[in-house]
Amino acid sequence: MPFSPLLHSGILLKRYKRFLADVRLDDGREMTVHCPNTGSMKGCAEPGSSVWVRLEQKTGRKLPGSWELVETPLGGLACIHSARANKVVAAALAQDLITPLVGYRVVRPEVRLPGGESRFDFLLSDPGECVVEVKSVTMAVGAGGGAFPDAVSLRGQKHLRELTSLAANGRRACLLFCVMHSGIEWVRPADEIDPEYGRLLRQAVAQGVEVIAWSVVPSPHGLEVAGQLPVEI
Length: 233
What we know:
Blueprint: E1 8-16, E2 20-25, E3 30-34, E4 50-55, E5 65-71, E6 77-79, H1 84-94, E7 106-112, E8 119-125, E9 129-137, E10 139-142, E11 145-148, H2 154-168, E12 172-179, E13 186-189, H3 195-206, E14 210-219, E15 222-229
Parallel strand pairs: 9-12, 11-13, 12-14
Antiparallel strand pairs: 1-2, 1-4, 2-3, 4-5, 5-6, 7-8, 8-9, 10-11, 14-15
């Protein structure tokens, strides 16, 4: 999935008010860009880090562009644009690149199931059905590891409870960690940040929820689906 238009490189000055970031581009221009990530961005928002931004001139747009990539303190590039995870997973599903989820002829995004409270990222069907929830992982924890979430996630806890209920009632349910960090080689729950999420994740696995992690390697040119990673529950 190539970036279009091409990204511009620079230095992060600061991230603030969750959705704003000040950057200095390599050509000397300083500007405020959109930060498309609502999480804490732990390990991905250190002032002075090398960053890449997408600049666009659009009518009615208040900011000149969006922050896309960062070089993290532990090494490697991370894509901090969390919405990219669903887009690259959709493309990977269409090309049968996520092997545990191949064989479905219909892929529907953003589906609310009858009687459910949450809207899940994908419903795969024909033959059968599989509910898929995607979580973007960018927090590195050392030794090649990555963890989710990077802040207490009540929404993530809610998704796990609903996935667990689906699996307990005989439906196929899958949690997909989309790892958008070139330095992460395996994934675990971030119990030190959100112990309830870790507890619910293990409960979900015990009830039959499938938990898989897939590597998506970022570069200034685009995002490349790289393959499955181990998950340590």
